[in-house]
């Protein structure tokens, strides 16, 4: 995953994507979805996408494709308390992509650290977890970028410990999502800087979900938490009593993931996303979630290659 010490040349990559000819799905290999894993289906019988869009001329028209989706990452992909229905900006984009492709996407609840294993096991063909597009992730999957974000640290409202930023968190405990080397890498880099300067290391505490990491901060088991700037902004919009500390670190694209063996599906998703950008539906979805600042100017694959 990307570390804060590496500069991200995202703008140049996006510009290149904008000028590239849109790729179309030219093969139907791997286009049928395996049966949903037992106990993992969300909203069984009601997959997103109507399968009847006029734009559904891809090799995936009429297909139902299983998607591994997290349910604890607002506003990207989440379920309300007591509900199994996954919603969010990524879900709405997936809905529109399915319609554009003439397909249906069956969202199946999957924890973040199980997304790639689920793809590799053949339970789903697409992963949707708001995953960072980095060179490390690109080795395991094709990253079909759909938004951009950054990384921010939050503390309880009022900042009772007086932490001024990640680079000044020496000796404190920071909560972070398990299975996210990007965030963990930022903390490790900051901790290394602490010890080299003769200060205490940063203690890192990992959690299976973003909600659990936030709860640790609220309960005083962690002094701060690191996660995406999109999530932190959404939390504040929802009235969570936290505040952002320090700068917005490591701006990067986030992506849907597809295995390298399924390049045609990745190409079809990219082509469909560009279609949504061209017809205005993409920006309309982001506007509904007040996420306009996360818009990409053009669809792309592996835009984080140089992050």
From TrEMBL:
Q: What protein does this entry describe?
A: Transporter substrate-binding domain-containing protein
Task: Report the residue ranges that make up the Solute-binding protein family 3/N-terminal domain in this protein.
Answer: 64-292
Presence of keyword Transport: no
May I ask which residue range the UniProt record assigns to the signal sequence?
1-25
Q: Which UniProt keywords apply?
A: Signal
Species this chain originates from = Jatrophihabitans cynanchi
Q: Organism's domain of life?
A: Bacteria
The record's annotation in SMART domains points to:
PBPb
**PANTHER family (alphabetical):** ARGININE-BINDING EXTRACELLULAR PROTEIN ARTP, MEMBRANE-BOUND LYTIC MUREIN TRANSGLYCOSYLASE F
This protein's record includes keyword Signal: yes
């Amino acid at each position: 995953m990307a570390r804060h010490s590496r500069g991200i040349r995202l703008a140049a990559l996006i510009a290149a994507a904008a000028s590239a000819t849109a790729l179309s799905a030219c093969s139907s290999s791997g286009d049928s979805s395996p049966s949903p894993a037992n106990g993992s289906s969300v909203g069984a019988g009601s997959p997103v996408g109507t399968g009847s869009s006029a734009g559904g001329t891809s090799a995936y028209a009429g297909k139902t494709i299983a998607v591994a989706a997290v349910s604890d990452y607002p506003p990207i992909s989440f379920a309300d308390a007591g509900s199994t229905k996954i919603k969010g900006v990524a879900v709405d984009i997936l809905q529109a992509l399915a319609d554009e492709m003439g397909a249906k996407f069956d969202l199946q609840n999957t924890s973040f650290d199980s997304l790639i294993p689920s793809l590799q096991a053949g339970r789903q063909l697409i992963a949707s977890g708001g995953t960072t597009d980095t060179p490390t992730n690109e080795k395991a999957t094709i990253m079909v970028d759909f938004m951009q974000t950054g990384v921010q640290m939050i503390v309880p409202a009022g900042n009772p410990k007086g932490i001024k930023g990640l680079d000044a968190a020496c000796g404190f405990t920071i909560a972070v999502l398990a299975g996210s080397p990007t965030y963990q890498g930022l903390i490790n880099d900051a901790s290394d800087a602490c010890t080299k300067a003769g200060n205490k290391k940063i203690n890192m505490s990992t959690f299976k979900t973003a909600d659990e990491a936030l709860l640790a901060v609220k309960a005083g088991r962690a002094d701060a938490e690191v996660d995406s700037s999109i999530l932190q902004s959404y939390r504040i919009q929802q009235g969570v009593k936290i505040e952002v500390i320090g700068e917005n670190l490591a701006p990067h694209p986030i992506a849907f993931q597809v295995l390298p063996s399924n390049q045609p599906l990745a190409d079809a998703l990219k082509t469909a996303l560009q279609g949504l950008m061209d017809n205005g539906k993409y920006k309309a979805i982001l506007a509904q979630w007040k996420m306009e600042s996360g818009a990409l100017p053009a669809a792309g694959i592996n835009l984080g290659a140089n992050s």
